[in-house]
Amino acid sequence: MKYLLILGALAAGHAAADSIDPATAHGWNTSAELGAISTSGNTVGTSVTGKIDAKQETAKWSNEYILSGYFKDEEVTGDDGEKIRERSAQRYSLSAKAGYKLLHDDHGKLFALATHVDDRFGAYTRYSTIGVGYGTQTYQSDTHTLDVEIGPGYFRGVRSEGNTENGMTIRGAANLKWKLSDSAQFRQTMSVERGTSNIHSMAETALLTKINSTMQMKAAYNIRNDTNVPADKKNTDTQTSVTLVYSF
Question: What residue stretch is flagged as signal peptide (predicted)?
Fold first, then answer.
């Protein structure tokens, strides 16, 4: 027997009741998403993914804080024939970005960013970055917006075999939003960090549909890639998810 559980989570904040994209008015806007899959029968396992995204707008600052996690447990048969539960995926990440709004440009910002990823089964078990840069909205219409960022940074990573790497990076990012209808929106985000020995990139393709004034359904496809990985690791990790997103 196999079934899908999709769970909504609550978070504090403010959002516009008639739009998928929250209003940019001053104050806090927080959304939380959570999804889970549980299987039984011939295949037994559980996977859970979740994310909290908190944005703060003031007259001078545009700040964002993100916490996300993913884990997967599977039932396997040991050498003695006994069935045991085994963790096969576990990743947590957090980031904080502070953007100072430039007076001469409604969309231009100078920003500082810090991120940390703990990935038990990844090519890098820990990966941390700090950076600064400039971001702006390069395109805006009634249905489309495109925001881009670029700037230097510094990273420190611990590889799965225990080696530590660090050095300077150059980071670029883009965020495309496309309003398909009053109740549906397409989003594409991408970031690339180029260091001296590795290129670390992440991308998410997502479709959101509004259920009611505070609830959305989100289907997403995520890709994480490192060009320089240990021999026993793959360069690319992917994740497909369906979650409920609650905003208020």
Answer: 1-17
Q: Pick from 43, 55, 45, 42: which is nearest to 11 by CA?
A: 55
Q: Report the distance separating Cα 50 and Cα 32, nearest Å.
A: 7
Sequence-separated (6 or more) residues with CB below 8 Å from residue 171: 113, 129, 131, 133, 149, 150, 151, 152, 153, 191, 192, 193, 194
Neighbours of 25 (CB within 10 A): 10
Inform me whether the pLDDT recorded for 198 exceeds 50. Answer: yes
What's the rounded Cα separation, in Å, for the pair 118 and 222?
17
Given pLDDT bands bounded at 50, 70 and 90, which one contains residue 68? Answer: very high
- Cβ(171)–Cβ(153) under 8 Å? yes
What's the CA gap between 116 and 95, in Å, rounded?
6
Q: Three-state SS for 25?
A: coil
DSSP 108: -
Query: In the predicted model, what is the mean pLDDT of residues 46-51?
Result: 92
Domains of the chain as residue ranges with CATH: 2-78+91-247 (2.40.160.40)
Between residues 125 and 83, which one has the greater pLDDT? Answer: 125
Chain CA centroid to CA 20, Å? 18
pTM of the model: 0.84
Quick check: 247 and 13 in contact, CB under 8 A? Answer: yes
- Where are the strands (E) in the chain, listed by range? 2-5, 27-39, 45-57, 61-77, 83-101, 109-119, 124-140, 144-159, 164-181, 184-194, 199-210, 215-226, 236-247
| Six token digits for residue 149 | 């960022």
